[in-house]
Amino acid sequence: MLLINESKNLSSEILRLKNFGEKINFVPTMGNLHAGHLSLVREAKKDKHICLVSIFVNPLQFNNSNDYKKYPRTEELDRSLLSKEKVDLLYLPNLELVSKDNFTYSLGDISKKLCGIDRKGHFQGVAKVIIKFLRIINPHCIYLGEKDFQQTLIIKKIVKDLNFNTKVVVVPTVRDKNKIALSSRNKILGKKLVLAQLIPSILSQIIKELNNGDFNLSRIDELKESIKKKGIDKVNYLEILKERNLNKPDKIFSYCRVFISVTINSVRLIDNMGIKKKVRLLGEKYFEVN
Ligand code: AMP
């Protein structure tokens, strides 16, 4: 596995590989790798193209400097995991990557919902780095986790708006035995990790109740209160939204997902699950599945 820090070195290596007719499959990460990240890597390796992984804890996407400082960094371990997976290239940019090129990119409505509401500048920070990566690498495919569903929609928009010739591949969320979505932040929770089990359980509960029929919007507030009583410090959001654009469901049946973000011990966690059947909202109150 070849390690590269400088973007100009990465550019010349990519050019060299492309001159040999190689295609690049790219997996961007912030490191502290777990089985979720590795499932992206395994997908990226399936078609035998060059597999490039980046590890960069992007300061621009943290709206809280303490959160940035606390973010777990385990470079040695990450390197050994990636080399076991036979990753070809590991890009470890330094902070210079985000010190120049002050451009802004219009993210549109999707970035104003869910995590965009209380993480000001987060998606703008993600976009800035992803655009730089796409420009340098121009990958054949980019692999993203469904856990960060809103982020996948934003990156799909970037690829489309800026005419990158890259396919966005979204990989299902990897969960632990208690159905908690794997996340680098889970480790910071220590003993409070047990509370994170409430996250998948409330998502499954909502989907089950929707499928049983007669699901009223007020039920969402009841469920929010119930998990707060069980020890979750804050429910940042719990919403059923359309999968395509994160709009609220309306009277036309459409594919939707349930999205949640909670804070436990100052650690912000997110998760989401898809609803297999189409959903509609009647009288702004009653959900119906098709
Ligand atoms: P991160 O290092 O948290 O920025 O994540 C890097 C990539 O891994 C993103 O595309 C995430 O959506 C994805 N990812 C993170 N956790 C999981 C998981 N539990 N299952 C699948 N993909 C994940």
Which keywords apply here?
290 residues; Rossmann fold; single chain; three-stranded antiparallel β-sheet; alpha/beta; binds adenosine monophosphate; Pantoate--beta-alanine Ligase, Chain: A,domain 2; six-stranded parallel β-sheet; 2 domains; 34% helix; globular
Description:
This protein has 290 residues and is of the alpha/beta class. It folds into two domains: 2-171, Rossmann fold, CATH 3.40.50; 184-285, Pantoate--beta-alanine Ligase, Chain: A,domain 2 (2-Layer Sandwich), CATH 3.30.1300. It is built from nine helices and twelve strands. The chain has helices at 7-19, 35-45, 65-70, 75-84, 115-118, 122-137, 149-161, 198-212, 218-229; strands at 2-4, 24-29, 50-55, 89-91, 141-145, 167-171, 215-216, 234-242, 256-264, 267-274, 279-282, 286-289. The strands form three sheets. It has a six-stranded parallel beta sheet, sandwiched between helices. Helix 7 links the parallel strand 5 and strand 6 (167-171). Helix 6 crosses helix 7. The chain is globular. Adenosine monophosphate is lined by residues 29-30, 36-37, 39-40, 144-145, 147-148, 171, 173-174, 181-184.
Instruction: Work out the radius of gyration.
Output: 20 Å
Output the number of helix runs. 9
Say which CATH homologous superfamily of the largest domain is assigned: HUPs
Classify the helix fraction into a percent range: 25-40%
CATH class of the largest domain: Alpha Beta
Q: What is the H-and-E element order?
A: EHEHEHHEHHEHEHEHEEEEE
**Count of discrete domains:** 2
Spatial ordering of strands, largest sheet? 1-4-3-2-5-6
What is the annotated CATH architecture of the largest domain? 3-Layer(aba) Sandwich
Structural class: alpha/beta
The proportion of strand residues reads 15-25%
Number of E-state strands: 12
Name the hetero compounds present: adenosine monophosphate
At the fold tier of CATH, the topology name of the largest domain is Rossmann fold
Provide the low-confidence segments as ranges: none
